[in-house]
C-alpha cells in the first residue's frame, strides 16, 4: 500500500533533531522528509500488531499529524523511539475506539460479541501504560522509559533497539539495566512493605 505523503521533502541530509526543529518552526518540507525516512518502518512494525492495513495507514498518518503539532516538545536526538511511542499509542487508542463502537452497535441491535482475549503484546502494553507499573514507569527518565518500551513491549534485540533509537548497542544495554533498577525502586516507593511487585523481566539480547 502506498502511504499518503505530506508534501515533498528536500532536507534529506539533515538529522532528525534538525528536522523536528524545522517542523516546530512550521516547515512542511521537514515533515515530508521525516515521513519519507520513518513512515515505511512504522507501517511495517504496526502491521505486526494489526492486520488491517487501512487502520495501520490511518495510524501512521495520525502519528505525523501529532508530530506536526508537537515537534517542539521533542528533546532532541533521533526521532525513531519518539515516533514509535506516538504510533503505538495511536494504535491502542484506535483499537479502543473500535471496541467502544462495536459495543454500542451490539447494544443497539442486541447482539453482544464474544469477548476476545488480549494478545501478549496488548497485555504488556497495558501493563506499561496503566496501574502501578504505569505509574512507576512515569517516574523514570524518558530515555530509560523508551528503552523499556522497545525491548519489553516490542521485544527488540539490542541491535534492533540501537538502530531504532539511534544509540550504540552498549548504551541500550546500560539503559535497560538502569531502567529495570529504577523501575523496581519506583515500585518499591509505591509499595514500601508488601511482597515484591512483578517487574518486566529479561532484557535485550
From TrEMBL:
Residues passing through the membrane, by range: none
Can you say what this protein is called? RNA polymerase sigma24 factor
One GO biological process term is: DNA-templated transcription initiation
State whether keyword rRNA processing applies: no
Which keywords does this Swiss-Prot/TrEMBL entry list? Sigma factor, Transcription, Transcription regulation
Extract the Pfam families matched here: Sigma70_r2 (PF04542), Sigma70_r4_2 (PF08281)
Q: What GO annotations for molecular function exist for this entry?
A: DNA binding; sigma factor activity
Q: Which InterPro entries match?
A: RNA_pol_sigma-70-like (IPR039425), RNA_pol_sigma-70_dom (IPR014284), RNA_pol_sigma70_r2 (IPR007627), RNA_pol_sigma70_r4_t2 (IPR013249), RNA_pol_sigma_r2 (IPR013325), RNA_pol_sigma_r3/r4-like (IPR013324), WH-like_DNA-bd_sf (IPR036388)
| Domain spans labelled RNA polymerase sigma factor 70 region 4 type | 133-183
Which protein family is it in? Belongs to the sigma-70 factor family. ECF subfamily.
The question of whether Transcription is a record keyword is answered with yes
What residues does the RNA polymerase sigma-70 region domain cover?
A: 34-100
